[in-house]
Amino acid sequence: MFLSYTAAALPLLSLLANAQQPPSNRSTASLTEVLSQHANLSSFQSLLETQFPAILKALDTFDATSDPITILAPNNDAFDSLVNSPLLSGPFANNDTAYISKVIAYHSIMGEWTSNTLNTSFQWLPTMTSGTNFSLVEGGQRVGGVLQPGDKNSSFYEWEIVWVSGESTRSVVTVQDVPFKGGFIQVLNNFLIPPDNFVPTAETYNLANYDYAITAFLGAVYSLANTTSLAKYINETQGITMFIPANVAFAAVSGTLQHYLETPEPDLVSILSYHVLSGTSGPLYSSDFANATSLSTLANTSLSMRFYPNSYFINQARIVAQDVLIYNGVFHVIDGVLSPDDAAVLPNPTSATAAPVLPTNKDVLAVNGSEAPFTTFMPNFVPTDLPDVSTTGAYSYASQSTYGAEATSSKKSEARGVLLRGRGDEGGLWFVLGWVGLGLGSAVVFFGAL
């Protein structure tokens, strides 16, 4: 389920005045011992012990004092709810060990992240998904952690810990700050969702967020006669960041954009590329936003980020939804189409919607998202990464997706693995648990000294 996060979503609250008590004293108990003490984690414990003993062993090598780890452990209710998850039900039903190991890695975070170290602003933390084809984000795919005021009617805690993952899935910690010798366990009410590729994520986002749907931008990318360069860059570049105009923003300037499509393409390519950051510095999450910042774009020109009361702006456009995670980065939704020729236009913080900088002959207030251009060019996405229910009720699960104006392919490698850094008697070791080719039931564990 997608949620929108804006700078105004949570007030800046004083943790000094309202802080929860620090986590309890360190524990010398192993991960297995602590899991066995919590009946609501029996499914998670069974999964690790019976199918992933090497991962369990690696997780148990961390030291809370010198090398802590935080494990986000789904409770039994989360396991029972897997059947309702379009992305996770198939892999778990088919015992797709390669994908499940990815899910476990995505629930493991280096460092100590507790009610005492998180705060009321989102922190986007790298998970242990740095193995081959588990993430195109340097250092591992991110998950967002934040403290939010607890619900007095349903929460035992003054401050709830909330984690946000792919598809803006919200997971609430039901039991906080459970210590074990390697760090802390946070017990989740549902699974985190590993971020998917841009096209399926965008299409799911459109269904959940009609007001901020982005089908126009997606269609515009694939409307170009030669979609290979821009689409390939968006789909395959590591650590990408995009500021994507909502459909209503495209609709307001549809005449100009349609004209660009009918004329030589450089104008449209320039407009679209201006919404994509260049460079290899990694994704720009909301926790990295800063006032008076210049951002280099794929169009070889710069964007200006500014902060006015309660909102960040990119050039003249307000950021209306933040931190939608994708396999190779992140995108944010804005309420105006940007133009490199109008980079000096300042935002109007008092206006509910950004005024268009491109020519328009429409009454902006009368525009709605259904008028968005380019939606007929939506890529032909075949969601073979999602579970399918056959006529017999059995699930099928594949490892590839194809999408494009003409079925542009995005092939995932058949080699998958999860990288877990452990410690041994002889010093640090890398435990690499992986499978070569999906469908192999046995794991291969490689060890190597640091």
From TrEMBL:
GO terms for cellular component: fungal-type vacuole membrane. Residues 1-19 form the signal peptide. One of its GO terms (biological process) is macroautophagy. Pfam families: Fasciclin. The chain crosses the membrane at residues 428-449. It comes from the Eukaryota. InterPro entries: Adhesion/Biosynth-related (IPR050904), FAS1_dom_sf (IPR036378), FAS1_domain (IPR000782). Residues 28-192, 201-338 form the FAS1 domain. Keywords: Membrane, Signal, Transmembrane, Transmembrane helix. This is FAS1 domain-containing protein.
